[in-house]
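EI: anyone free to look at a 143-residue chain?
SC: sure, send it
EI:
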Amino acid sequence: MCESDIPLPNLDFDELDEFEDLSPSPKCELKANIFELTQLFGFKLISEDPLKATSSSCVYAASSNSFDEIKLQGDNDDQITSTNKFALKISKSKKRINKEFENYQKLPESPNLVKSYDIFETNNLIILQMELCLGGDIFGVRL
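SC: here you go
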């Protein structure tokens, strides 16, 4: 999982008030059965709700069926190790996602960057498989 020691900006409390006015992410409007789509490429959604959504894309947490699943100790047999979890960005904007993936491939490997692993496409949608980072994005951080 992605854990970063990147220093966060030192915001005054007055500046935090500006973040209070941010509206929540728009509802994901992808015209597809996300469960079937992700299963087609060997993934299982961890939750029905996206982690993040815009009008043209949604990010879901998912596990991969293609990896050896090592069960964690506990009562829940369906619990999967964290090495088997990914973020899947599902989007209508194929050109933008392909460019994002190409740009990532040009960067040197760094523990401070979210890893992008692979791309999967259908006629209308594209899926970018990424490292799942705990805590969401930097906009979700509360100091």
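EI: The mean pLDDT is 74.
SC: 👍
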